[in-house]
Amino acid sequence: MLPPVKRAPLLLAFAWVVALVATLGSLYYSEVRLFLPCELCWYQRIFMYPQAVILGLALWRQDFGIWPYSLALSLLGGSVSALHLTQEWFPGLFPLACKPPVPCSVEYIPQFPIPLQALIAFLLIAFSMALLSREARGRG
Length: 140
Fold this sequence. Notes:
By secondary structure, this protein is mainly alpha-helical. The protein has a single domain, classed as Bromodomain-like (Up-down Bundle). The protein has helices at residues 8-32, 39-61, 67-89, 114-136.
């Protein structure tokens, strides 16, 4: 019988790949597709970009104690994404600070809104970090 596979390295690798894809996707939208990011987009980037670095370093060092930091960034970033998505779906519902040249209600991809993409990435990372916390505490 094979020994049980430790999930911690897989969870950390998954979270890092999600953060890396989200970061590169964000850069693709702004630098290649030339979508101008609104103010809420910048806040989401503030919570996502560092994760591509810190999760990558944690994976390299096998440092599973990274989970509280990544979880906090993901929950905060996911909250901004949810607010941004609400602003796109219901423009004018919240009086946000977003203003021209790019208001937060602009939808570049109506079929799969960018804030929804970010929210999914933040939730995937948060879920991975919650599972990693259980692994790190020995309850996996």
